[in-house]
Amino acid sequence: MLKELILIETAIVALIAGVTDWRSRRIPNWLTLPAAAVGLAMNSAAYGWSGLKISLAGMGLGLLLLFPFVLLRALGAGDWKLAGALGAFLGVHQLLLVLLVAAMIAGLMALALVLHKRRFGQMLRNVGHLLLAIATGHPGHPSVSLDNPESLKVPFGVAFALAAILFVAGQLGVYGS
Predict the structure, then answer these.
(1) Strand, helix or coil at 10?
(2) What is the pLDDT along the chain (177 residues), one digit of tens a residue?
C-alpha cells in the first residue's frame, strides 16, 4: 500500500511541477523542497533504513546529474531541484529511467519548436556550443543560455512531469495487463 502511495505522490508532485512550469516557466521551492522531504520520509516509513538510503541516493543522483546543466545555464534551478525531489521518491534506477524518457520528450518538444520557428541551423550551432562547453568544462557560449532572451526555451519541467506520470501510470497498471 505504501509503495502505491509513494507512486501517487510522485505523480502529484510531477503534475503540479509540470503545470506550474508550463504556466510560469518556474518550478517553485515551496513544491520541490517539501516534496524531497516527503519522498525521504515515505521511503523510510515503507522500507526502513534501506528505503532511506535508496531515497537519498536517488535524490543525490538527480541533483548530481543535472547540476552541470544548471552551471551552464542550460537548465533552470527549479528543474534541478525537481530532479532531486523526484529522485527522493523514485530512487536511482527508476529516476534514471524517468530522466531518460524526459530527455527524449524534451528533445521532441525542442525539435517541434525549432521546426515551427524555422531555426534549425541555429539549433545545430547551439548544440555544438553546448557540447564544447561540457567537454571542456568552460562556461557555455552566452547565446546558449537561459539568460538569452532570443533563445527558444523548452520547459523541461513539463517533459520531466510527463515522463514521471507515464512511469507511475505504468507501475500502477493504468495501461492494462
Answers:
(1) helix
(2) 888 999 999 999 999 999 999 999 999 999 999 999 999 999 999 999 999 999 999 999 999 999 988 887 778 899 999 999 999 999 999 999 999 999 999 989 988 887 887 767 777 777 777 777 777 776 665 655 555 556 667 889 999 999 999 999 999 987 765
Q: How many domains does the chain have?
A: 1
Q: Which residues contact 71 (CB under 8 A, 6 or more apart)?
A: 139
Rounded CA gap, 76 and 23, in Å? 15
Cα radius of gyration rounded to whole Å, the chain: 17
Contact 82, 32 (CB under 8 A): yes
Does residue 176 fall inside a structural domain? no
Q: Which helix (H) or strand (E) holds 11?
A: helix 2-24
Let me know: does 91 contact 42? Beta carbons within 8 Å. no
Domain holding 145, by residue range, is 2-171
Q: Is 15 helix (H, G, I), strand (E, B) or coil?
A: helix
- How far is it between the farthest Cα atoms of the chain? 52
